[in-house]
Amino acid sequence: MSKKVNLTVFATGGEYTFGVIEDEAEKQAMLNAIENNEVSSLIYYTGNDGNEESLSSWNKANLLHKNGPWVVGASLIVNGDNESFDELIDELECTTFTSSNPWVDGEFKKKFSNDALLWGTEQIEKRIHFPAELILADDEDFDVTNVFIGSMNMDETINGAEVVDMVCYIPKEEQIKLIKNYLGEGGKDEMLSEYIGDMIFDHPEILNPFTLKVGDIEGKGETENDFNIVTTFDGEILYKGGEY
Fold first, then answer.
1. pTM as predicted
2. What is the per-residue DSSP string for 5-16?
3. Following CA atoms 85, 91, 92, 94 in sequence, which dihedral angle do they give, to the nearest 10 degrees?
4. Which residue has better confidence, 185 or 4?
5. For 47-81, how does the pLDDT look when each residue is reduced to its tens digit (9 = 90+)?
6. Contacting residues for 241 by C-beta, under 8 A, at least 6 apart
7. 177 and 77 share a domain?
8. Do 30 and 16 form a contact (C-beta atoms < 8 A)?
9. Number of domains in the chain
10. Residues near 30 by Cβ (< 8 Å), separated by ≥ 6?
11. Are residues 114 and 195 in the same domain?
12. Is residue 51 packed enough to be buried (19+ CB in 10 Å), middle (13-18) or exposed (0-12)?
């Protein structure tokens, strides 16, 4: 037999995109929008055939597209047969870590022309729920110290936001195995929380067996801003605006 525990990370957060504009007509549409101070995550322009075209950040998100609550200031809501609480993550003994930190490296740049543009967007939304489902054995008690919450860091692309990316549940005996496999026998007394960020960077698949299934990520339904940042591949900022 088994039992279900629902874990939800809840906070203000947002939807984030980052990618490349390489098509000449789309680049010109963006440059025109910058010149006219009309930059947004959805830009309409007239194509070469005279028809109206659109340039959408969601269709240019070839480096990242993430929607979720910010880990900073978030609450963890737990609902189960024998466990129920709603607490700030900072006040709990669970672990938060950086699960991903996308950046534009040389290999990524090689896929595109040097005069391509980089385009990042943020649309903040309040009351975002990030729901995950945990299945425990009937005789197994929920332990919040087994909860590991990973977030995507946007500091190399858009801004300093850290957006919840994954929720893992790693029992103590599995934590010990993971740290010993990573550090060897000399790491038997180390804490997984100290190394989990490095581990997932070196071996992205290592947490797959412990990553919980996530349901629909939903928020208030209204965005608070439309932040855009446009740069060249050399890092020159052509546009930055629409902050919260």
1. 0.94
2. EEEEEEEEEEEE
3. 130
4. 4
5. 888 899 999 999 999 999 999 999 999 999 999 88
6. 37, 39, 227, 228
7. no
8. no
9. 2
10. 21, 39, 43, 55, 117, 119, 230
11. no
12. exposed
